[in-house]
Amino acid sequence: MAYQKLETQINQAINTGKSFAYETNFNSDPLHWPLIFKAAGYEINMIYFCLNSVEEAQKRVAIRVENGGHFVPDSEIIARFKAGYTNLNEFFGFFDTLHLFNSSTYGKAPDYCLTFQKGELVKKADLPFFLEDLTSTLYSQAKS
């Protein structure tokens, strides 16, 4: 149901030339929708909010559940966390613009990390240590 609604909204946006944004863990088939938008002539931009650990992701899900949101099993949280960073590391150059923010501290505004445009680093701040292990290709390009 949710997928069909998203698909309908995407098709409406493309048919009318409207901008469109959606939230994703970037974990499964990460370029499915971006490729469709790119083929329709859209500029593809990503804002990626980083977490420093699976444990922090689990805490965020618990907070969401306490506030009436849906539950996600730990095994799925772990899989999504790993896949999201794997895909970010592999596909960061696909996006016209990619901004990374560190949102690891709950209740605090995310810290700006970096910006890539078409795979080229254009701006960076202090990079959090955990990105080196989770996104080695992106991290090494950002450090050079």
From TrEMBL:
Upper lineage: Bacteria, Pseudomonadati, Bacteroidota, Cytophagia, Cytophagales
Superkingdom, natural source: Bacteria
InterPro entries given in the database record: P-loop_NTPase (IPR027417)
Alphabetical list of Gene3D superfamilies matching this protein: P-loop containing nucleotide triphosphate hydrolases
PANTHER family the record matches: SLL8004 PROTEIN
The protein, known as: Zeta toxin
